[in-house]
């Protein structure tokens, strides 16, 4: 895999992108009304070419979106490193996946052990920091705050990607130049959008604060890693039907939540489009490929 081919899917110029709609119900209704194929049928635009022969590492690869990203990368010809705390049967069933277990992203030692296990091998072309945590607990003044859970989310979702990326960069495990670091953050990390999505109610402090911090992590890493030729992007994977969002099952249909297989294609499509030419770390909604404001 050459550095050039690692960024094969990236356009010569960064794709022109406008900003997307903050109201999720309206966004999905508009997409259906206008027959937006990018939103409704990712297969109609999907370009997985960049994955062939690329070495792709996914954290939290044992279930949910991470598992689907690992499966999709393998299906499209990537060499997959599935990092997880504990493997699942589904992860182990992927052909040619290299599983690294014990990858607890709140542990520097575990992240360094991951890097150690990769040292001396072909460098990673794309690191996907996917592991995340959003507990089903009350998180507002009315129902009660939970500072322990708040800090745990921050540790996993904001500091986790920094620990993993730093360990890999330090050991020279990420391709230079030509590598990409992808932070799977969330639209919940958009400060501006809180005034729409949390209007007059606030809440979900732990989740939204940690994802805003994860976005900042991505922006700063983009600046630090640009001279090494490594691109960084913050991606909102879209609304996916996973264990994490089971508590929102009642709004899955009206807000256009998709199965992870679809969500993974949307994410992979955008990974192919981002590159060093994007300014800083673009914050992209993988549902429609448009920008979310920080
Ligand atoms: N689903 C959505 O609609 C949605 C929307 C926006 C953003 N996201 C983001 O997308 C990512 C994946 O979400 P998901 O829906 O697939 O969640 P999920 O089904 O709950 O899976 C979470 C994954 O993260 C791993 N993880 C949790 N804590 C960890 C830790 N301390 N160290 C290492 N791994 C850890 C889990 O591993 P274990 O099995 O070991 O717990 C699991 O593999 C997350 O970052 C999430 O915030 C999801």
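Q: What amino acid sequence fits the structure above?
A:
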């Amino acid at each position: 895999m050459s550095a050039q081919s690692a960024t094969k899917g990236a356009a010569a110029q960064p794709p022109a992108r406008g900003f997307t709609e903050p109201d999720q119900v309206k966004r999905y209704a508009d997409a259906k009304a206008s027959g937006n194929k990018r939103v409704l049928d990712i297969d109609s635009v999907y370009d997985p070419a960049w994955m062939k022969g690329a070495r792709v590492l996914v954290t939290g690869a044992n279930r949910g979106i991470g598992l689907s990203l690992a499966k999709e990368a393998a299906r499209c010809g990537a060499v997959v490193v599935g990092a997880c705390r504990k493997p699942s049967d589904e992860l182990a069933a992927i052909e040619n996946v290299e599983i690294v277990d014990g990858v607890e992203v709140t542990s520097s030692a575990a992240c360094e052990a991951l890097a150690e296990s990769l040292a001396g091998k072909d460098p990673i072309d794309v690191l996907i920091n996917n592991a995340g945590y959003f507990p089903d607990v009350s998180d507002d003044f009315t129902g009660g705050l939970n500072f322990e859970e708040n800090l745990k989310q921050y540790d996993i979702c904001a500091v986790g990607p920094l620990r993993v990326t730093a360990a890999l960069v330090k050991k020279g495990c990420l391709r230079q130049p030509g590598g990409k670091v992808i932070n799977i953050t969330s639209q919940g990390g958009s400060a501006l959008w809180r005034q729409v999505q949390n209007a007059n109610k606030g809440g979900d402090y732990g989740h939204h604060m940690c994802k805003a911090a994860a976005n900042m992590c991505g922006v700063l890493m983009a600046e630090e890693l640009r001279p090494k030729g490594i691109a960084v992007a913050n991606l909102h994977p879209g609304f996916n039907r996973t264990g994490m969002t089971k508590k929102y099952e009642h709004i899955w249909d009206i807000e256009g939540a998709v199965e992870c297989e679809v969500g993974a294609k949307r994410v992979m499509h955008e990974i192919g489009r981002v590159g060093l030419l994007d300014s800083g770390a673009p914050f992209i909604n993988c549902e429609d490929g448009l920008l979310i404001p920080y």
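Q: And what stands out in the fold?
A: The first helix runs from residue 3 to 6.
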